[in-house]
Design a protein that fits this description.
This protein is mostly helical. Helices cover 45% and strands 0% of the residues. The longest helix has 14 residues, at 29-42.
Length: 65
């Protein structure tokens, strides 16, 4: 599922801001959000997302808090 630009524009302000400390994100936040939507929609396990998404530990760690 690809988010449309309008959907992303509505969703992005609701996400917590990225920290100024630490290293920069390697993967775009939009792609990580799409990975979570894919997992919820498909009902697959965290370790089984499509290879077109970031590695599952990256997505899990970013959204677990």
């Amino acid at each position: 599922m690809d988010l449309s630009n309008a959907e992303w524009a509505a969703l992005e302000p609701l996400l917590p801001p990225t920290g100024v400390q630490g290293r920069p994100l390697k993967w775009p936040r939009r792609l990580m959000v799409e990975a979570v939507f894919y997992l919820v929609r498909s009902g697959c396990a965290w370790r089984m997302p499509s290879p077109s998404f970031p590695p599952w530990p990256t997505v899990f760690t970013h959204f677990r808090s």
